[in-house]
Write a structure and sequence with these properties.
Elements: H1 2-11, H2 15-41, H3 46-49, H4 53-85, H5 88-101, E1 106-116, H6 122-125, H7 138-150, E2 155-158, E3 161-163, E4 169-172, E5 175-178, E6 181-183, E7 187-192, H8 195-204, H9 206-218, E8 221-232
Antiparallel strand pairs: 1-7, 1-8, 2-3, 2-7, 4-5, 5-6
Helix pairs in contact: 7-8, 7-9
Length: 247
């Protein structure tokens, strides 16, 4: 190994020359980087050019609300025209399918589950606690939602939006993104169905039990209420299935 290393060393340029070449290469790369940065930022500050994330999401939320209203109006017009041209049997079948999919409002006894982040004071009070331990995560919401469906849920609403079996949401930090709208905790799930069966399903779900352990440990919030009679609105989102590429 020593002979091989010596042989390679004889082929390299002197140390001083190598240093000059290295400095020249670094300066050249810096020049390329500065030029590229200038083109991207238009000669100004990149930080100044970057949009405020909250503002962008709020603007997107307003656009989605407007599109949702337009969608509701068009859907109502389609139903009106369909009713004019369809017979009684077809109309009844359409209503039945729409109810199964979630396109009509539903009323009945319900559960309302509210999940909240733990107080930040737990960081100093509980040894080994990290900020990530104090927030409601996507898997927590998924555990509750899946357990409720498993328990026989007939209709469900997350925050102020009706959701169906194919609805998808994403959590980023301690915010929830659903149908293009951004929500902060507390997170509220309202579900119509057999109350006792859904409650039992929550009790048996492993993910829910893990969350409840952290409720006791760091003070995550969980509130389960029984509602005598509740009406959930019809689903107003898109029924189009979007393809997602997983890398």
């Amino acid at each position: 190994m020593e002979a091989e290393a010596a042989g390679h060393g004889a082929e390299r340029p002197p140390a001083r020359l190598r240093g000059r070449l290295g400095v020249a290469l670094v300066m050249m790369l810096c020049g390329v980087l500065f030029a590229t940065t200038g083109r991207l930022s238009g000669g100004g500050s990149i930080r100044d050019e970057s949009s405020d994330v909250v503002g962008v999401l709020q603007e997107r939320g307003r656009d989605i609300e407007q599109l949702t209203e337009d969608n509701v109006d068009k859907r109502a017009e389609v139903e009106r025209l369909r009713g004019q041209g369809a017979g009684a049997e077809t109309s009844a079948r359409t209503a039945q399918v729409g109810e199964a999919v979630g396109l009509s409002e539903v009323s009945g006894p319900a559960l309302r589950i509210t999940l909240t982040d733990a107080p930040s004071s737990a960081l100093g009070a509980i040894p080994g606690t990290e900020p990530n331990d104090l927030v409601v995560h996507q898997q927590d919401l998924e555990s509750y939602i899946n357990a409720l469906w498993q328990g026989g849920a007939e209709a469900m609403m997350l925050q102020d939006q009706r959701v169906i079996n194919g609805s998808a949401f994403r959590c980023a930090g301690n915010t929830l993104l659903l149908e293009g709208r951004v929500y902060s905790p507390p997170f509220e799930i309202t579900v119509i169905g057999p109350v006792e069966e859904m409650t039992a399903s929550l009790e048996q779900d492993p993910g829910v039990q893990v969350y409840r352990e952290w409720v006791d440990h760091v003070g995550l919030g969980e509130k389960v209420e029984t509602l005598e009679d509740t009406t959930l609105p019809a689903f107003e989102g898109s029924l189009t299935v979007d393809a997602t590429v997983i890398r």
